[in-house]
Amino acid sequence: MKKHVIAYLHTHWDREWYREFEIFRMRLLQVFDNVLEMLAKNQIPSFYFDGQVSALEDYLDMRPEKREIVENLVRRKKLFIGPFYCLVDEFLTDKKCFAKNLEIGIKKAQQLGCNDFIGYLADTFGHSQNVIDVMRDFGIDKCIVWRGCPKEIPSEFKWCGMDTVNLIRGYFHNEFSIKASIEEKAKMLKKEFDLISEKGKNESFILFPIGADHLGVEKDITEQISSINELLKDDYYITLGSPFDYFKRVEDNFINYRYNDELRDNSMTFTLQGCYSSRLDLKRMNVECSYKLDLAERAKNYYKDEKYNTLIEHGYKLLLQNQAHDSICGCSTDDVHQENRIRYKKILQIANGIIDELKFKNGLDGNKILNLSSKPYTGNIEFESSILKEGFEKISIRNGFDKFLLLDTQKIPVTEDYKDIYTYIARVENVEKNDVEYLMPIYRPSDILISKDSLKNSFLELKIKENEMFLNNTKLALVDFIDLGDSYNFAPKIDDYGKEYKILKTGIINSGKLRSTLRIDLDNSWDVVTLFVSLDAYSRYIKFYFEWENTRRNHFLCFNAKLNNPIKTVYSEDMNTLIKREFDPDYDIRKNLPSQKGTEVKNNTAPMQRGILTDDDDNNIGIITKGITQYEVFQNNLYLPILRATGQISNPKNPARTTPAGPPIETFDSQMIGLNTAEMYLFFGNENDFYNTLNHVYNYIIV
Q: Alpha-carbon distance 627 to 344, whole Å?
């Protein structure tokens, strides 16, 4: 039976990747100038602009005179745009950011005349099941995916209840652009169509993208298709259309297969899980910016100050630009990631500036606390003041200008105003949500005990014994591995199971009633990592802060918690909810490195957002982090990477992946040479303890 191939013209547009943003934008001007000309002359029926509007916004910034043409084509359904602002990584963006991505993207698309949308997720490195509910909240009822689909998923299926198309052979099809005869192109296309037919299980139709990364449309595309149709006339017939056309033709097929889980299977397509530990400095900044922008918007909403709306949106646009998968995943050039850092700094300037202005205008002068979280708050709070305050525990001092002086538009700070700024810690109790209270000293006996070898309170005990570290009898360590991989995939050396750091020395940094801190220096004969362990009075969690100078290349440094039992189940945060993942704890990546071309090693790593919780019969350990976005399970070991040092975007000799995933461009900065830090909070308990700890670490408190 002859099959109807509904092909759509597109280009997948990474704003930045193996070249920098402005260079790619110059290419964008050429590509899209050509597309608009072909659409205007009816040389092509339509063009699908990658499910995002940021590239179109970048284009119109340079070609404002084309806006009317674009609006006309959108209204006539010849140019399809949105619904996203950027194609962000789904596992490194929280629910608020993903919703902002749709909110801003749809608003921009509607301003240009578009009101019909598909959740187009053609190239993200796997898919979170939680994006479905967010898209549904914005009225989207169709989705297109590729990476992460197990081999049993056909071309049409219900994914968490939404009609979804699986691009069996992906979005990257440049057959019409390569130098080959029509006969050769027809053979290549027939092979692709046969594979889609075999695995897609659709008897009548095939959806086929024509296009690739940053690729323009061939001037003779319709003539090529006509010639190829003549050669394939017994098996296939190609017409140019849109994904919307395909959804209409196959609307009865979706019910035949249902799938209600995340899409992270790499048996058919690369999911490039090493991205979640590449350039962890960017991940830390991303988490901080997401949190601070959310806090700034909550403060703006609380004070009903609408004049900050444009600033908030500007901040989120910068953040979403950095959350595009090649940017936040850390698999771009060094220059790209330098620009990412600058954007992150701008976002923090915006978020902190809004918060400080609102504090200044509304009298939060360091004596009051505003709880913007969703529940009452009891615990310790840090705050700064240029005034010596009696009854509060002082933990540090720096030099600077008082923020309120900097915010007073009727004053200019002078040299004499440069003074000591103190950081204090205070305990607050039962501050209701959306409530303002005065910050008062609270006198209460401390339950902290500290020595150079131990730190404990009523709930937790850290102990150093026989040169090893234990938290409530769970052994903790740093373990370093050789890494033969690249920015996309960790690749182990077959016989390397890691070298454990030894404790060099310990010492007391601070012995306070509300907080005490122990310093532990860890050594592996190559470098020394300094660990600061802080414990608050009556706290059920303990803070670990690592700081060190990395001097070595091509290695993978992990924090290790060794549990009593093999780890089979881990709950990790995804889009602000805990999801359950099952593991085979005996699976060993070193014994399963691939030999067949086009394959990627299966692994026991997974992405997370702000934290994880193990499911252990003896002791559930939980960890909340600030920018550690991956974990690994092996036997009874839980590993969290605090540094992964590699030197290429894509290593052609990567033993974990037998085909390149990008260009072999050297990236010195991804070796992470220089100062590095990592921060995490450990606790024992259940899901309720997880959220309580999360609400303390990300506390949404303004002082």
A: 13
